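Residues pack. One example:


***
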Amino acid sequence: MTSRSRWILAFLFCALIRTEAQSYGSELQWGVDAQQKGYYEMAIQHFQKAMELDPTQIPPHVYLATSYASQYIPGVQTEDNLQFAAEAIEQYKFVLDSEVDRQSKITSAKGIAYLYLNMKKLDEAENYYSKASYLDPKDAENFYYMGVIDWMQAYQPRMEARAKLKLRSGDYLNAANPQQKRVCDELREKYASTVEAGLSNLKYAIFLRPDYDDAMADMNLMYRERADLECDNASARYEDLRTADEWVDRALAIKKAKADKASAPTAPSPQ
C-alpha cells in the first residue's frame, strides 16, 4: 500500500470517529465506558458533549452527577474536592426538578443527601433524605440516616456542654447541681424534640427492615442521648439506659446471626 493510500485511510478513519463523536448516543456511551473504567475527567467531557448535542436528554445529567460524586472524598475540605460535591449536587438537583421517572428522582435525592451529610450540612442532608423517603416510603435507609442526623444534631452540643462542665464519660447531668441542671434544662428545651424524632425515624427503619442491626446500634445511642437529658427523673433515666442495653444486645444478636449464615457451608447443588 502506498503512503498516499495510508494517508487516505487514516483521514477516512478520523472522519468516521469525528462523525460518531458528534452523535449524542455515541458521546453518552463513550462517557459511560470511561466512567466504568474510572476515567472520570474523560467521562465528564463526553457527558457534557452529549448535553450540548441534545439538551433535552436527562441521562447525561445523571451520569455527570455520578462522575463528580465518585471523585468526592468525604472529610477533605480542599477547594477542588468541595467543587466535586457542588457539581454533583447541581446535576442531581437538575434531575430532581425535571420530568423524569421516579427512580431517577429517588437516586438524585439520596445522592444529594449523602453529599450534604458528608459535608456536615446536616439540615440540608435531612431535608433531602426526607424527600427521598416521600418518594420511596419503604426504603429503610432514608429513615435510618434521618435518625443518624437527628442524633448528630443532639450529640455534638451536648458533648460540648459536658466538656465545659468537665464531666467524665460515665457521669450524667445531675439536677442536684444547679449549674448542671441549668445546662440540662437548656439542652432538653433545644434538643428533646430532635431526640424523639431520631427515635421515631430509627424505629421506623427497623419496622421496614427487622434485621437492620446498624439502626439497632443507633437506637442504643439515641436512648443514651435521651437519658442524659433526664437529669431530674432518675427512674426514666434508668429505663432508657436499660432499653439502650437491650438494643445493643439485639444488634449483636442480629450481627452474629448474619455472620453465622454467611459462614455456613452451602449445600451441594443436585447433579
DSSP finds eleven helices and no strands in the chain. Residues 6-19 have pLDDT under 50 and may be disordered. The longest helix spans residues 178-208.
